[in-house]
Amino acid sequence: MVDTVNDLILTPRSPCADMLPVTVGRMMLTETLPAQMWLVAGTVPGALPFNHAHGLLIDQTPPQGTRATDQSDAWAVVTLAGPGATDALARLATLNLRAMTDGQATRSHIGHMPGHITRIAPDIWRLMVFRSMAATLVRELTHAMHQVHARHG
After folding, report:
1. Tens-digit pLDDT profile for residues 39-82
2. Which of 30, 70, 87, 92 is the most exposed place for a label (fewest CB within 10 A)?
């Protein structure tokens, strides 16, 4: 018999569960769920730059002997795409986004949150913040999307 008073059932949820997708005009904000993310020490082929001493592997297995920490559940990862996406992100990031090339990644604040920004293609961005900041990320990006849409249509 199941004791419904004392049993606790934990159900896994993604960081942005029930908040995404959001569409504003032709811009779309969606959650991206990488299968695996690793913070790796040193220079590792295929790793995105993360800080002066580490790289980030997304959906790749670290090479044998690499010092790595599983980061898969630590981050909220979203994709911001569509005409106006770069303008919306520019309202929250202090980078020259138009100078970034496809595939280029960097750490930067997104709003007031420490984050990681990757340009996937023109007007397509992968954005990462700590999992605990997922709701704030969605709220601030949605607000920026509405501002850009109201100004430019």
Report:
1. 999 989 999 999 999 999 999 999 999 999 999 999 999 999 99
2. 70
